[in-house]
Amino acid sequence: MSADFSLTANVVDVFARSIQPAIISVAGGRIVRIAPIAEAKADPALPYVLPGFVDAHVHVESSLLVPTEFARMAVAHGTVATVSDPHEIGNVLGVAGVEFMLENAAHSPFKFCFGAPSCVPATPFETAGAEITAADIAKLFENPKIGYLAEMMNWPGVLHRDSDVMAKIALAHAAGRPVDGHAPGLRGDDAAHYASAGISTDHECFTAAEARDKLAVGMKILIREGSAARNFDALIELMPEHYPNLMFCSDDKHPDTLLLGHINQLVQRAVALGHDVFQVLRVACINPVQHYHLPVGLLAEGDPADFIVVKDLVNFEVQQTYLDGELVAENGQSLLPAAPIAVVNNFHAQPVQDADFRLPVLTEQATLRVIQCFDGQLITGRVDLPARIENGLAVPDQEQDVLKLAVINRYQPQVPPALAFIRGFGLKHGALASSVGHDSHNITAVGCDDASLARAVNLVIEAKGGLAAVGADGREMLVPLPVAGLMSDQPGADVAAAYAAVDALSKELGSPLGAPFMTLSFMALLVIPSLKLSDKGLFDGQQFAFVDAVE
Known about the structure:
Strand order of the largest sheet: 3-2-1-4-13-14-15-16
Shape: globular
Number of strands: 29
Distance between the termini: 65 Å
Low-confidence stretches: none
């Protein structure tokens, strides 16, 4: 319950590009008055008050936390709202998954804006747990808590004006909701054709040149810096010219990094690079609220009292966070109470055997199509390498950093794993497995030998969801994810600690990646080129077709 109060601070007016000492009076959860103090310039003895930060595109599920626990961690960093695409749980449970997120979020004052997932399943080339149809989307739009059509990942369908894709976009326009995009690598005429379908944003730009093409045709660009995909350095140069059409987002944020910071870190980095503080705050605080019509106050009289108090405009150390006049975080500590967490799931995979991961070859001169993963990127490359053959089987070659990758259907029992090879994970022994595998969330595993792969996968299956790491020396670790196989039912700080421990073990096994489990989770994401693995086989994201793992 919010209380009536007033505070004296340097008020940062992003619209007027001014900083003015003032007394802010709050009553009934709203700002009733901002009374300037005679001194016309900032008082260095006072803290600064500014609108709260907004993550303009995030999959809350990727934090391994339910919405209420995500909020408890995010408010400590000055985040007051997110634009949240629930398509991860949508792929597992369909509309019921979206409704779970809405119900859990309702226990928090944090201002979640959920979208209607546009691509569930993401492609017809994988097995998902559910489908969300155009009729389902129309029904979701009847709920005012559903604020937009979530990322339209089927960019080939948009370019070819597929009737089902266009029907979903038309529903959003008719409901007055913006449409989020997802168009990695589209340039020039293709970018223009994609945007002309009425798609307003993109968070998948890897280069400033790509972003400029999309800005030129009216799209807004989200500068993404998550746990796996990091495009801040490539895109921040857009700030001076294009700040009215930029936003910050994390897309996917693991709990250990969320514990350390959120959008506040991007603000601090941008200002440290010399970018204008008012432009940066426009991107971090204002643009998402205006684009998505969020019910978030922007530090004006009559607005909801959603704002943050920071020590200075250099480090942006958050001292207090307010939502509707309620103090929800202070000095890095969340004041939000824990909320009850229901457990929902869709998990039917049965235990596997070592032999399930064998990959026979017909010739000693076989060639592998190897996925090349990159640290900090969702895109992958392709490397053709001679296969290492033992007893008629293609096996990992750790000297060449060629490991075995497997995806196991978790929605149907007794389905053989899909197998391929991958380079870039760097494991020297053991295996990793995860039930977080974008976007269909089948079990994805990488390992140095079949026994380790089977053990890691079985740990996940026994828990009906989780992250597992096993070493050849017998060490094992599991982070259970009982909520849809995606999220924990434990407090955020505990999940962050558990995740940090399994992440540390993955690196002790040899991985040089910054976030091995996050990278692993994207190796089944077929809509990001170039080579990925679904439960149905190896997939070329540029040809949009299956290819053989061994030639």
